[in-house]
Specification:
314 residues; alpha/beta; TIM Barrel; eight-stranded parallel barrel; two-stranded antiparallel ribbon; globular; binds NADP nicotinamide-adenine-dinucleotide phosphate; AKR4A/B; NAD(P)H-dependent 6'-deoxychalcone synthase; oxidoreductase
Protein backbone atom coordinates (compact mmCIF):
# COMPACT_ATOMS: atom_id res chain seq x y z
CA UNK A 1 0.00 0.00 0.00
CA UNK A 2 1.20 3.52 -0.67
CA UNK A 3 1.89 5.86 2.25
CA UNK A 4 -1.21 7.97 2.89
CA UNK A 5 -0.95 11.72 3.26
CA UNK A 6 -1.24 12.22 7.02
CA UNK A 7 -3.16 15.41 7.98
CA UNK A 8 -1.46 17.88 10.33
CA UNK A 9 -2.55 20.41 12.94
CA UNK A 10 -0.81 23.67 13.80
CA UNK A 11 0.45 24.15 17.35
CA UNK A 12 -0.48 27.78 17.84
CA UNK A 13 1.88 28.63 20.71
CA UNK A 14 4.90 26.89 19.14
CA UNK A 15 7.93 28.61 17.65
CA UNK A 16 7.35 29.00 13.91
CA UNK A 17 3.80 27.60 14.02
CA UNK A 18 5.02 24.00 14.07
CA UNK A 19 2.72 21.41 12.48
CA UNK A 20 2.02 18.07 14.17
CA UNK A 21 0.93 15.05 12.11
CA UNK A 22 -2.34 13.79 13.62
CA UNK A 23 -1.04 10.23 14.04
CA UNK A 24 2.12 9.50 15.98
CA UNK A 25 3.83 6.24 16.84
CA UNK A 26 3.83 5.45 20.58
CA UNK A 27 7.01 4.00 22.04
CA UNK A 28 6.12 3.06 25.63
CA UNK A 29 7.92 -0.21 26.40
CA UNK A 30 6.02 -3.49 26.49
CA UNK A 31 7.59 -6.68 27.82
CA UNK A 32 5.89 -8.77 25.12
CA UNK A 33 7.31 -6.84 22.16
CA UNK A 34 9.76 -8.81 20.01
CA UNK A 35 10.60 -5.93 17.68
CA UNK A 36 13.13 -3.35 18.89
CA UNK A 37 12.23 0.32 19.08
CA UNK A 38 14.96 1.17 16.57
CA UNK A 39 13.57 -1.28 13.99
CA UNK A 40 9.98 -0.21 14.66
CA UNK A 41 10.72 3.51 14.25
CA UNK A 42 12.69 2.86 11.07
CA UNK A 43 9.86 0.75 9.63
CA UNK A 44 7.36 3.44 10.64
CA UNK A 45 9.36 6.11 8.79
CA UNK A 46 9.37 3.84 5.70
CA UNK A 47 5.57 3.56 5.99
CA UNK A 48 5.03 7.32 6.26
CA UNK A 49 4.91 7.99 9.99
CA UNK A 50 6.51 11.34 10.81
CA UNK A 51 5.49 11.81 14.44
CA UNK A 52 7.09 9.87 17.32
CA UNK A 53 6.05 9.93 20.96
CA UNK A 54 8.90 9.18 23.35
CA UNK A 55 9.60 9.96 27.01
CA UNK A 56 12.65 10.00 29.24
CA UNK A 57 10.97 7.36 31.42
CA UNK A 58 10.44 4.94 28.52
CA UNK A 59 14.19 4.41 28.07
CA UNK A 60 13.75 4.56 24.29
CA UNK A 61 15.29 7.93 23.41
CA UNK A 62 18.58 6.41 22.30
CA UNK A 63 16.85 3.89 20.01
CA UNK A 64 14.55 6.53 18.54
CA UNK A 65 17.60 8.70 17.86
CA UNK A 66 19.49 5.82 16.23
CA UNK A 67 16.52 5.10 13.96
CA UNK A 68 16.36 8.76 12.91
CA UNK A 69 20.11 8.79 12.09
CA UNK A 70 19.67 5.59 10.10
CA UNK A 71 16.66 7.00 8.22
CA UNK A 72 18.73 10.04 7.26
CA UNK A 73 21.62 7.82 6.14
CA UNK A 74 19.28 5.67 4.05
CA UNK A 75 17.69 8.77 2.50
CA UNK A 76 14.21 7.88 3.82
CA UNK A 77 14.00 11.51 4.95
CA UNK A 78 16.16 14.34 3.75
CA UNK A 79 16.21 16.29 7.01
CA UNK A 80 15.34 15.81 10.68
CA UNK A 81 12.96 18.78 10.24
CA UNK A 82 10.58 16.42 8.41
CA UNK A 83 9.89 14.64 11.70
CA UNK A 84 7.89 15.64 14.74
CA UNK A 85 9.57 14.28 17.88
CA UNK A 86 7.96 14.49 21.32
CA UNK A 87 9.54 13.58 24.63
CA UNK A 88 8.38 13.93 28.22
CA UNK A 89 10.04 14.95 31.46
CA UNK A 90 9.79 12.40 34.23
CA UNK A 91 8.51 13.34 37.69
CA UNK A 92 12.03 13.24 39.15
CA UNK A 93 12.90 16.22 36.93
CA UNK A 94 9.79 18.30 37.72
CA UNK A 95 11.94 20.83 39.60
CA UNK A 96 12.47 24.29 38.05
CA UNK A 97 16.29 24.03 38.12
CA UNK A 98 16.32 20.52 36.60
CA UNK A 99 14.15 21.17 33.53
CA UNK A 100 16.75 22.68 31.18
CA UNK A 101 19.42 20.06 32.07
CA UNK A 102 16.87 17.23 31.71
CA UNK A 103 15.82 18.44 28.27
CA UNK A 104 19.46 18.81 27.21
CA UNK A 105 20.08 15.24 28.39
CA UNK A 106 17.13 13.98 26.31
CA UNK A 107 18.49 15.82 23.28
CA UNK A 108 21.93 14.27 23.73
CA UNK A 109 20.40 10.80 24.06
CA UNK A 110 18.24 11.37 20.98
CA UNK A 111 21.21 12.95 19.10
CA UNK A 112 18.93 15.85 18.17
CA UNK A 113 19.42 19.60 18.30
CA UNK A 114 15.82 20.31 19.21
CA UNK A 115 12.58 18.60 20.14
CA UNK A 116 9.29 19.48 18.53
CA UNK A 117 7.41 19.09 21.79
CA UNK A 118 8.32 18.47 25.41
CA UNK A 119 5.59 17.52 27.87
CA UNK A 120 5.32 17.41 31.64
CA UNK A 121 4.61 13.66 31.81
CA UNK A 122 2.54 13.85 35.03
CA UNK A 123 1.56 16.78 37.28
CA UNK A 124 3.50 15.19 40.12
CA UNK A 125 7.01 15.80 41.51
CA UNK A 126 9.21 13.36 43.36
CA UNK A 127 12.66 13.73 44.83
CA UNK A 128 15.31 13.85 42.06
CA UNK A 129 16.90 10.52 41.17
CA UNK A 130 16.33 7.30 39.28
CA UNK A 131 13.14 6.61 37.30
CA UNK A 132 10.90 4.32 39.33
CA UNK A 133 7.57 2.97 38.12
CA UNK A 134 5.09 2.88 39.72
CA UNK A 135 5.95 5.98 41.70
CA UNK A 136 6.14 5.50 45.48
CA UNK A 137 3.71 7.95 47.08
CA UNK A 138 6.18 8.44 49.95
CA UNK A 139 8.64 10.05 47.46
CA UNK A 140 6.19 12.74 46.29
CA UNK A 141 7.00 16.37 47.08
CA UNK A 142 5.12 19.57 46.14
CA UNK A 143 4.68 20.16 42.40
CA UNK A 144 5.79 23.75 41.68
CA UNK A 145 3.73 24.15 38.53
CA UNK A 146 4.64 27.80 37.98
CA UNK A 147 8.38 27.27 38.48
CA UNK A 148 8.41 24.20 36.23
CA UNK A 149 6.40 25.93 33.51
CA UNK A 150 8.62 29.03 33.57
CA UNK A 151 11.63 26.74 32.98
CA UNK A 152 9.81 25.06 30.10
CA UNK A 153 9.10 28.47 28.57
CA UNK A 154 12.85 29.11 28.87
CA UNK A 155 13.48 25.85 26.93
CA UNK A 156 11.27 27.06 24.07
CA UNK A 157 12.94 30.50 24.09
CA UNK A 158 16.38 28.83 23.98
CA UNK A 159 15.31 26.85 20.89
CA UNK A 160 15.69 23.49 22.67
CA UNK A 161 12.08 22.69 21.75
CA UNK A 162 9.56 24.13 19.30
CA UNK A 163 6.63 23.67 21.68
CA UNK A 164 5.83 22.90 25.31
CA UNK A 165 2.86 21.10 26.78
CA UNK A 166 1.24 19.08 29.50
CA UNK A 167 0.17 15.50 29.94
CA UNK A 168 -2.43 14.07 32.30
CA UNK A 169 -3.63 17.56 33.28
CA UNK A 170 -7.25 18.01 34.41
CA UNK A 171 -9.28 21.13 33.50
CA UNK A 172 -8.56 22.51 36.97
CA UNK A 173 -4.79 22.12 36.50
CA UNK A 174 -4.91 23.59 32.98
CA UNK A 175 -6.83 26.59 34.33
CA UNK A 176 -4.11 27.14 36.91
CA UNK A 177 -1.41 26.78 34.27
CA UNK A 178 -3.14 29.24 31.93
CA UNK A 179 -3.42 31.79 34.76
CA UNK A 180 0.34 32.45 34.70
CA UNK A 181 1.69 31.00 31.42
CA UNK A 182 3.26 33.51 29.04
CA UNK A 183 3.53 30.68 26.48
CA UNK A 184 0.31 28.63 26.78
CA UNK A 185 0.57 24.83 26.55
CA UNK A 186 0.41 23.74 22.90
CA UNK A 187 -0.81 20.24 23.82
CA UNK A 188 -2.39 18.24 26.63
CA UNK A 189 -1.69 14.53 26.10
CA UNK A 190 -4.30 12.45 27.94
CA UNK A 191 -6.08 9.13 27.70
CA UNK A 192 -8.86 9.31 25.11
CA UNK A 193 -10.47 6.30 23.48
CA UNK A 194 -13.97 5.06 22.74
CA UNK A 195 -14.21 3.78 26.33
CA UNK A 196 -13.03 7.09 27.86
CA UNK A 197 -14.21 9.84 25.57
CA UNK A 198 -13.35 12.87 27.75
CA UNK A 199 -15.97 15.23 26.26
CA UNK A 200 -15.59 17.96 28.92
CA UNK A 201 -11.80 18.13 28.89
CA UNK A 202 -11.77 18.15 25.09
CA UNK A 203 -14.31 20.99 24.93
CA UNK A 204 -12.21 23.01 27.40
CA UNK A 205 -9.00 22.44 25.42
CA UNK A 206 -10.71 23.38 22.16
CA UNK A 207 -11.94 26.65 23.65
CA UNK A 208 -8.41 27.47 24.87
CA UNK A 209 -6.63 26.47 21.64
CA UNK A 210 -4.87 23.50 23.28
CA UNK A 211 -4.43 20.49 21.00
CA UNK A 212 -5.45 17.21 22.66
CA UNK A 213 -3.29 14.19 21.91
CA UNK A 214 -4.97 10.91 22.80
CA UNK A 215 -2.85 8.20 24.38
CA UNK A 216 -3.87 4.54 24.68
CA UNK A 217 -6.26 5.14 21.74
CA UNK A 218 -6.98 1.40 21.52
CA UNK A 219 -7.28 1.19 25.27
CA UNK A 220 -4.46 -1.27 25.49
CA UNK A 221 -2.44 0.60 28.11
CA UNK A 222 -0.55 -1.58 30.52
CA UNK A 223 -3.54 -3.87 30.92
CA UNK A 224 -3.83 -6.92 28.75
CA UNK A 225 -7.15 -8.07 30.21
CA UNK A 226 -10.65 -7.61 28.80
CA UNK A 227 -10.68 -4.53 26.62
CA UNK A 228 -13.77 -2.30 26.60
CA UNK A 229 -13.28 -1.37 22.96
CA UNK A 230 -11.16 -4.01 21.24
CA UNK A 231 -13.44 -6.78 22.58
CA UNK A 232 -16.66 -4.82 22.04
CA UNK A 233 -19.35 -6.68 20.01
CA UNK A 234 -21.02 -3.48 18.80
CA UNK A 235 -17.70 -2.16 17.51
CA UNK A 236 -17.00 -5.53 15.88
CA UNK A 237 -20.29 -5.25 13.97
CA UNK A 238 -19.50 -1.71 13.01
CA UNK A 239 -16.00 -2.66 11.83
CA UNK A 240 -17.37 -5.55 9.75
CA UNK A 241 -19.93 -3.25 8.12
CA UNK A 242 -17.15 -0.89 7.02
CA UNK A 243 -14.73 -3.68 6.06
CA UNK A 244 -12.29 -2.24 8.65
CA UNK A 245 -10.82 -3.43 11.94
CA UNK A 246 -11.95 -2.30 15.39
CA UNK A 247 -8.60 -0.50 15.76
CA UNK A 248 -9.32 1.47 12.59
CA UNK A 249 -12.80 2.42 13.86
CA UNK A 250 -11.20 3.64 17.12
CA UNK A 251 -8.61 5.76 15.31
CA UNK A 252 -11.03 7.11 12.70
CA UNK A 253 -13.33 8.26 15.51
CA UNK A 254 -10.44 10.14 17.16
CA UNK A 255 -9.59 11.76 13.84
CA UNK A 256 -13.21 12.82 13.27
CA UNK A 257 -13.21 14.37 16.76
CA UNK A 258 -10.38 16.65 15.59
CA UNK A 259 -7.87 14.98 17.91
CA UNK A 260 -4.29 13.93 17.41
CA UNK A 261 -3.29 10.51 18.76
CA UNK A 262 -0.31 8.33 19.51
CA UNK A 263 -0.88 4.66 18.88
CA UNK A 264 1.69 2.00 19.48
CA UNK A 265 2.24 -0.91 17.14
CA UNK A 266 5.65 -2.41 16.48
CA UNK A 267 4.06 -4.90 14.08
CA UNK A 268 4.54 -4.04 10.39
CA UNK A 269 1.00 -4.95 9.31
CA UNK A 270 -0.81 -3.29 12.21
CA UNK A 271 1.39 -0.21 11.91
CA UNK A 272 0.25 0.08 8.31
CA UNK A 273 -3.38 -0.69 9.17
CA UNK A 274 -3.39 2.18 11.69
CA UNK A 275 -2.42 4.62 8.92
CA UNK A 276 -5.32 3.58 6.67
CA UNK A 277 -8.00 5.73 8.26
CA UNK A 278 -8.05 8.94 6.28
CA UNK A 279 -10.23 8.13 3.24
CA UNK A 280 -13.51 6.88 4.68
CA UNK A 281 -15.91 8.03 7.41
CA UNK A 282 -18.20 6.92 10.19
CA UNK A 283 -21.95 7.35 9.79
CA UNK A 284 -24.59 8.98 12.02
CA UNK A 285 -25.77 5.52 12.97
CA UNK A 286 -22.22 4.55 13.99
CA UNK A 287 -22.14 7.59 16.29
CA UNK A 288 -25.40 6.50 17.92
CA UNK A 289 -23.84 3.11 18.74
CA UNK A 290 -20.58 4.67 19.87
CA UNK A 291 -22.46 6.90 22.35
CA UNK A 292 -23.71 3.77 24.15
CA UNK A 293 -20.22 2.45 25.03
CA UNK A 294 -19.62 2.21 28.77
CA UNK A 295 -17.19 4.91 29.97
CA UNK A 296 -14.37 4.19 32.37
CA UNK A 297 -10.86 5.58 32.77
CA UNK A 298 -8.21 2.94 31.98
CA UNK A 299 -4.99 4.64 33.16
CA UNK A 300 -5.82 5.69 36.70
CA UNK A 301 -2.38 7.02 37.65
CA UNK A 302 1.33 6.23 37.89
CA UNK A 303 1.56 5.87 41.67
CA UNK A 304 1.28 3.06 44.18
CA UNK A 305 -1.18 3.43 45.85
CA UNK A 306 -3.25 5.63 43.50
CA UNK A 307 -3.66 9.30 44.45
CA UNK A 308 -7.18 10.45 45.41
CA UNK A 309 -6.92 13.93 43.94
CA UNK A 310 -4.92 13.36 40.72
CA UNK A 311 -7.88 13.96 38.38
CA UNK A 312 -9.59 16.63 40.52
CA UNK A 313 -12.76 14.53 40.41
CA UNK A 314 -13.23 15.25 36.72
P1 LIG B 1 -2.45 1.62 22.49
O1 LIG B 1 -1.71 2.36 21.44
O2 LIG B 1 -3.90 1.87 22.69
O3 LIG B 1 -2.25 0.06 22.31
C1 LIG B 1 -1.01 -0.52 22.04
C2 LIG B 1 -1.21 -2.03 21.89
O4 LIG B 1 -2.18 -2.26 20.87
C3 LIG B 1 0.04 -2.77 21.51
O5 LIG B 1 0.10 -3.93 22.32
C4 LIG B 1 -0.18 -3.17 20.05
O6 LIG B 1 0.37 -4.43 19.79
C5 LIG B 1 -1.68 -3.20 19.91
N1 LIG B 1 -2.14 -2.72 18.59
C6 LIG B 1 -1.72 -1.62 17.91
N2 LIG B 1 -2.36 -1.50 16.74
C7 LIG B 1 -3.24 -2.54 16.68
C8 LIG B 1 -4.17 -2.95 15.71
N3 LIG B 1 -4.36 -2.30 14.57
N4 LIG B 1 -4.89 -4.08 15.97
C9 LIG B 1 -4.71 -4.78 17.13
N5 LIG B 1 -3.83 -4.44 18.08
C10 LIG B 1 -3.09 -3.32 17.86
O7 LIG B 1 -1.82 1.84 23.94
P2 LIG B 1 -0.52 2.49 24.59
O8 LIG B 1 0.72 1.89 24.09
O9 LIG B 1 -0.82 2.51 26.03
O10 LIG B 1 -0.58 4.02 24.11
C11 LIG B 1 0.07 4.45 22.95
C12 LIG B 1 1.19 5.43 23.29
O11 LIG B 1 0.70 6.53 24.06
C13 LIG B 1 2.31 4.83 24.17
O12 LIG B 1 3.16 3.96 23.46
C14 LIG B 1 2.96 6.12 24.65
O13 LIG B 1 3.78 6.65 23.62
C15 LIG B 1 1.74 7.02 24.88
N6 LIG B 1 1.27 6.99 26.29
C16 LIG B 1 1.42 8.13 27.04
C17 LIG B 1 1.01 8.16 28.37
C18 LIG B 1 1.18 9.42 29.16
O14 LIG B 1 1.08 9.36 30.40
N7 LIG B 1 1.40 10.55 28.54
C19 LIG B 1 0.40 7.03 28.96
C20 LIG B 1 0.23 5.89 28.16
C21 LIG B 1 0.66 5.90 26.84
P3 LIG B 1 1.39 -4.69 18.51
O15 LIG B 1 2.61 -3.87 18.76
O16 LIG B 1 1.64 -6.17 18.63
O17 LIG B 1 0.63 -4.31 17.29
Amino acid sequence: MTAPKVPEVVLSSSSGQRKMPVIGLGTAPEAISKVTTKDAVLEAIKQGYRHFDAAAAYGVEQSVGEAISEALKLGLISSRDELFVTSKLWVTDNHPELIVPALKKSLRTLQLEYLDLILIHWPITTKPGEVKYPIEVSEIVEFDMKGVWTSLEECQKLGLTKAIGASNFSIKKLEKLLSFATIPPAVNQVEVNLGWQQQKLRAFCKEKGIIVTAFSPLRKGASRGANLVMDNDILKELADAHGKTIAQICLRWLYEQGLTFVVKSYDKERMNQNLQIFDWSLTKDDYKKISEIHQERLIKGPTKPLLDDLWDEE
